[in-house]
User: Fold ABC-type lipoprotein export system, ATPase component from Lishizhenia tianjinensis.
Amino acid sequence: MKISFKNVMPQHLADVQHDADSIWGNSFQIEAQSKVVLNASSGKGKTTFTTTLLGIRNNYSGDIHFGDVALKSLSKEDWATYRSSKIAVVYQDLQLFPELTVLENLEIKNQLHKTFSESELQNMLDELGVGNKTHERCANLSLGQQQRVAIIRALCQPFQWIILDEPFSHLDAENARKSLALIDRICDQEKAGFILTTLGDFYGYNYQVELKL
Ligand SMILES: Nc1ncnc2c1ncn2[C@@H]1O[C@H](COP(=O)(O)OP(=O)(O)OP(=O)(O)O)[C@@H](O)[C@H]1O
Assistant:
């Protein structure tokens, strides 16, 4: 499913001066299965971009399409279907359930879709260095540990795109690289793409598309 932007301009950014190669006000397509990075400093509009793409923000001019479908035409029910089967998300505030354990947080989503076995979930937690936290309440995890759990939870569904808003902001470079490698691998398995916003460099990763604000 390709994503097309046509002259998109969020209302609150309309009076701001944008660079000529900014995504705002320009038209472009992102091909299905692309690995996409948007790297920009704080306050430049990364969350505006992700929330617009996720239909949370609708106060913009221009149009965004998933395939041939205009986002502005999607009903709440349509969005529920997209979110459960086509678009996975890691929100900046993660939206984990703090009173539930790591495994319970994962299983809430995983059991709906039967995506992974419990041992596969444990292997992913091990791979991201939080394998000793499986039965810990999420409230007791550091923010960087919670980010890794939120990434794994987002992968526990079928998807064509995974959209991640600053998912590595509390991770050191080594853990960011491991998380990115996992996202990259599962995207390949799912024949999906990712769109990832970041504050910093990109850990040597060879992404395919760079978006600018
Ligand atoms: N609803 C709104 N009305 C007016 N201005 C807004 C609104 N939402 C965001 N802004 C402004 O738009 C700009 C971009 O905000 P946004 O949250 O998208 O930035 P960001 O790049 O995600 O920042 P950070 O890296 O700090 O999370 C900021 O200047 C912000 O103050």
